[in-house]
Amino acid sequence: MIMVTFTGAPLGGFVGSLIVAELLRHYAWPVIFVLGGAFPLVLLLVIVVWLPESPRFLARTPNLSARQQALLARLDIAQARAESHPVDIATENPVKMLFGQGYALQTVLLWIIFFCSLLNLYLFVFWLPEVLHLTGMTPPQAVFASSLIPLGGIFAVLYLGLLIDRFGPERALALHYALGIVFVALIALLAMPYLVLLAILFLAGTTIIGSQTGANAACGALYPARMRTSGIGWALGIGRLGGIAAAPLGGFLLARGLPPTQIFLSACFFALVAATATALLVLRGRPSTRLADPSLPAGLA
Fold first, then answer.
1. Which end of the chain has fewer CB atoms < 10 Å from its terminal CB, N or C?
2. Considering the chain, what is the average pLDDT of its residues?
3. pTM for the structure as a whole
């Protein structure tokens, strides 16, 4: 279910790429930034009007509005405020918690996974349209081909979440990252017919974006509720450092005279590190705090 919620990002990437591919046939590149600025402004209004607060926050907030009370009632947690311990909340520094109670190894591994995974993802997504353009495609063709990357990421949701639930993140995600190495290496090393390239790009998106979405879901499941937000937030924050590094890394490799498609070979290395760190999650401890707190109301446990 966590993975399903993350399909919005690749879906937006796919639809946005199709729109941009069509607009570039008639307008210059600044139209991309006009479009990219307009949608968040619309989203801001949607969030302000319709996005509800966290049920855990509402459950311990007095003087709720009728709409908020109706939300809690629909979620069957309207009486949570009457409990002596209504929610599993943090009572100490959340960062300290991430490295205490047996979570230190897990936290370090997750940070490595997110850093390498997002560097790999952004290196691929940032540079793919330009690399395809440098290999002879027109800008609309390059953008359309790149749109298959997020489309593959959406497809991964159909099966990867089930595999993680059944076999655990260690095996399911490690294998997924490893498969991504194969598809990225094919793109980097082989000249392929256009239709074959489109198929490989789709599979690369399935493994690259799908693995990151699966990592988001696994991270949420590996921390208890009181530190889940901190766990995911810090992992994504460390991962964004990898995303920031992706743009200059690609430019540096191109400036060094590397053939355009071969800049993606570095992505294979980072995918390998992510796969190894994911497999090593099996070594993490299993503190009793990972178990559901029986004192919590059913709707909040």
1. N
2. 82
3. 0.75
Task: State the DSSP H helix or E strand holding residue 181, giving kind and residue range, or none if neither.
Answer: helix 169-189
Cα–Cα distance between 269 and 203 in angstroms, integer? 18
Angle (deg, nearest 10), helices 169-189 and 104-134? 20
How is residue 263 annotated by DSSP? G
pLDDT of residue 116: 94
Residues in the chain: 301
Check residue 280 and report its DSSP letter: G
> How many C-beta neighbours within 10 Å does residue 224 have?
18
Mean pLDDT of 127-144: 86
In sequence order, what DSSP letters do the residues of 22-91 get, joined into one string? HHTTTS-THHHHHHHHHHHHHHHHHHHHHPPPPHHHHHT-SS--HHHHHHHHHTT-TTGGGSSS-S----
Longest dimension (CA), the chain: 67
User: How many Cα atoms sit within 13 Å of 166 on the Cβ side?
Assistant: 6
Instruction: Estimate to the nearest angstrom the gap between the alpha carbon of 300 and the chain centroid.
Output: 25
Most confidently modeled range among 132-141, 200-209, 275-284: 200-209
DSSP state of 300: T
The pLDDT tens digits of the residues spanning 188-240 come to 888 889 899 999 999 999 999 889 988 988 887 888 877 888 889 999 999 99
Query: Strand, coil or helix: what is 191?
Result: coil
Neighbouring residues of 163: CB distance < 8 A, sequence distance ≥ 6: 172
3-state class (DSSP) for residue 137: coil
Distances, alpha carbon 275 to alpha carbons 61, 110, 176, 178, 180, in Å: 42, 11, 8, 6, 10
